[in-house]
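Researcher: Batch entry, complex prediction.
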Amino acid sequence: MYGRMARWLLVILIVLALDLWINWPGTSFLQIGTWGREVRIRQGLDLRGGLQVLLEADVPANVVVTSSDMQTVRTVIENRVNGLGVTEPIVQVSGTRRILVELPGFEKTEDAIALIKETGLLEFVDAGTTRLVQGAEVMTDVRKGIAQAQPTPSATVAAAGITPTAATTPSETIYHTVMTGAALDTVGVGTDSLGSPSIDFKLTSDGAKVFAEYTTASIGTYLAIVLDGKVISSPVIKNAITDGQGQISGSFTIETANQLAVQLRYGALPVPLRVARTETVGPSLGQDSLRRSMIAGAIGLGTVILFMLLYYRLPGFLADLALGLYALTSLSIYRLLPVTFTLPGIAGFILSVGMAVDANVLIFERLKEELRAGRSLQSAVEAGWSRAWPSIRDSNISTLITCSILIWFGGTFGASIVKGFAVTLAIGVLVSMFTAIIATRTLLHLVLDRIDFSKRHGWFGI
Amino acid sequence: MDIIGKRYWFFGLSLLIIIPGLIALGLGGMKPGIDFTGGSLIEVQFDSGAAPEPQAVRQTVQEVVGEDVIVQSSGASGVLIKLKPIDEATQQEILTSLRKDYGAVTVLQFESVGPAMGNEVAQRAAGAVALASVAIALYVTYAFRRVPNPFRFGIAAIASLVHDVLLLLGLEAMLGLFLGWEADALFLTAVLTVIGFSVHDTIVVFDRIRENQTLHRRIPFETVVNHSIVQTLDRSINTTLTVLLTLFALALFGGATTRHFIVILLIGMFSGTYSSVFNAAAILVVWENRDWQRWFRRRPAQSSPS
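Model: Structure tokens for the complex:
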């Protein structure tokens, strides 16, 4: 008996130590051996403000959108969104034909939507003798043309006779686009002569002709590959490519080569998108709600702790300790996964505290019954626990069932608020099972087994 | 304590609350929010600190979009504007006119949902509630497979769950009728959470019945059920009390954005415990005793002439 309890106590102490480490003020990164992870609380849009856009494949309802198409859409949008400089953007496939984009702290809805829905323009740009840095923004004659073509009032003025270059700053160089992604036939990942990963591509016959002319004339110069105005690679032309087949070699790893191949292949979105829902939350609303919810949560938890202590006395005190472990462990898991915290998520967490308390209440009520029936303290603890267990298990499983349905529902519609609530509640339920099964029981044995119950009725509220 | 003997009183009390709610529902009190219908919502705060009359704001907004616009005041210095789905550009136009008429404003939130999207959400929402109910009925039947008539336990759990859902729908309809509250995605979340908790409570009571049934095989079922309810009453009260305490704190001190959600949860949790303690187990007894054979007789069977 004691051997088992000692083992559990060890488990509890390890969990507690981990919890303290993760939740220690200032800890922002967890490193165990080679495994590392950031551990910050992620705040949802309703808390820190920002923009959420749910996009939907703009195709008739009977047209099937494959999941690989949606994955590609996600990759493409992710790349574009990353250029906005938003911290922790979220791009998620929701259900079978929707994609959810969350940009915390970003409020220019129109800019974001324009960027996301952009068709994706891939260009092969003549960079001359300049080696363009990866990620650099460049302006090309093709992009310039598109900008001019847009029916904005300024474009009309420009078309009416003002020279196009007048609109740009003098220092900006406009590069010449040799050809666009439309000329690519197939793109794959291969290995170069040295055995390192490379990008192999094949051009359409028209593309091959243009490319042959250009490469023959420009050996030794740089050819920049530009996606949506951003340099993704800047190889040197080593020799003339006349057969329409080429290889881009550079310092690629298998991963970066694959990534680039995907970008080249899918510079354009594979399916058109339309906006199904947008939501913008100002930052002031969220911070106020967060502060209030924190206060409310603290008051609620304080009351529960006090109630347990007053009603159940010594076991209540032990339950409060177990609750402390429960709260810390849940927080650690929220940080590790990470779970995005929303206002309903905080409510879910507080509700799950109620569930954790319930497990203890079930055990203690049983304990009291067994004690009244004249059992010894030790056997009463064991009986109380084992008889309360089926209730705890079955009732928690039913809550987990509803949680999983909510997670599914929230996921399909990009309702991240619904999903956030269900995820926090589900984690709370699982952790509360752990603390009820292990922490409360071990603590009860550890403390109560050393007490002479016949002299200490008052400690149990009996 | 004889709870089962008074079961029809408890059923009556439930109906007393559910029926007015259903009437409110029938009167069209349930106002689905834009999550389900599609539409736009803009919440703005006037930097001057005092919001103009909603009527005046409505005029201004209608000059821009020219269609049905609803404006409600929100706090002392803000308004909520509800209208058809609009894009960002239209929103900016609205803001420009507001600024022209009333000085600087800050956008607290802007939401726009396409009508097709709203429709699908509404359909799936009903599906989610139905799916949750069926899944739980199956699980309860499975969990109680060793007792006689496990299916009855599943059905009784569902009955108590339907009780809670009806009560919440009716309540939401009444709130919609009198206070103009709208049912949004969070309302749905609250309903599903209450379903989970209600079954949670029901299972605790049923579990005790399951245990007592195997311990006391000779005692009549009605007595076993009543005894089980009384035995678990302390637990039911204490657990509900702790959950309600935390929810009360959230409702009183938490922010306005989740208050609606919390209030629905609060009432739902109470209803969930009530229906588990006073209705779910009682339904088992009604079924076991075949009460319905006596419902339409004037006198109990033993006093009728034979």
